[in-house]
Specification:
With about 325 residues, this protein is α/β, with parallel strands linked by helices. It has a domain at about 105-325. Helix content is about 50%, strand content about 15%. The chain has a 7-stranded mixed β-sheet with strand order 1-9-8-2-5-3-4. Strand 8 (about 245-250) and strand 9 (about 255-260) form a beta hairpin. Helix 1 (about 15-35) packs across helix 5 (about 80-100), helix 4 (about 60-70) crosses helix 5 and helix 11 crosses helix 12 (about 275-295). The longest helix is centred in the first third of the chain and has 24 residues, at about 80-100.
Amino acid sequence: MSNGNRRPPVFDEFDPKWLTGQLTTGGYRFGALAARLLPTAVAAGLATPLGATANFASPERRAMIERHLRRVDPTLRGMRLRRAVQDSFDSYARYWIESFRLPYLSKRAVSAAFVEDGYRVLLDALDGGKGAIIALPHLGGWEWAGRWIADRGHPITVIVERLEPPELFDWFVDLRSKLGMRVVPLGPQAGSEVVKALNANHVVCLLSDRDIQGNGPEVEFFGERTTLPAGPATLALRTGAPILPTGVYFTDRLDGHLGHVRPPVPAEREAKRLRDDVARITQDIARELEVLIRRAPTQWHMFQPNWPSDPGYPQFSSTLERDLPKN
C-alpha cells in the first residue's frame, strides 16, 4: 500500500522549561531514592560535602545568608561569619537529606530521635477544641516534628507554596502526605480550607517568617522594617485558635531533633479595625520568631531576600487575607 497521502506526525515545539522541570523533578526523585537506600550514618555524612558544594556554587545565596546572619548577630565578622555561612548550608543539606528519608522511617525511629519541649502547651491548646496554629520560621527540620505530631494521632494541616513545574509540586505534596499531613496549596481556597481544619480541631502549621505573597502587615523584624504574613493573626482572630510560636532544631545526635513550643501569642480584638489588630499580633509573632531564630541562627534556612533593602526583594501582589472568609 502507498503512504503517499499520509502526513508526517506533528511534534510540538521544544520547550526548554519543560526539560528543565523534568530534570529538576528527576533530581529530587533521585536524591530521595539515594537518601532512602543509604545507611543513616552515610546519608547524614553527606550534609557537609553537599553544603560545601552548594556554598561554592551559590555566591548570591551565600551573600544573602550573610546579610541575614548579621541581622540576627551583628557581631559576626570575618572567619566567624564564613563559618556560620557554611554551617547554614550544611544545615540546609541536612534538612533535605532527612526530609527525603523521613516518610520511610518507622514511628519508633522518629520518636526515638525527637525531644519535645512544650508539647503540653499544644495539648492544652487542642483541649480548647478550636485547633492550634503553629507559627514556624524556616528553621531546622520542622517536618520531623510534623511527622511526630501526626504519629500521635493529631490531624495536621500544612499550607504550602505552589512550585513549578507542577510535577515537582505534586511530588512534594505526596512526600508530605506520606508524613501524615494534609496539604493545602497556597491560593484562592487556602483560607477557607484552613478555617475548616481549625474548626475540626486540627493542628495547622504556617511558615511565618517570609511573606511569600506580599500582603502582610509591616513589622520590625531583626531591627529592620519588612512585612510578614497576615495569615496566623487573621486566622486566630476569626476562629479563636491559639497561635503557638514553635521552633524545631537539629541536635548533635544522629537524626536528633528538638521541638520547642512557646506560650500562646495573645490574640484578642482590641482595635476598631481588624487590620490594626492583625498588625499588632503579627508584630508580636515577629518578636517570638526572633527568639526562636536566635537560639540557632545557622539553622535558619532563609536564602531568599526577606527585607526591602535586600537585593532582589520582589514586589508582590497579595491574595491571602482576601481569600479568608469574612465574619
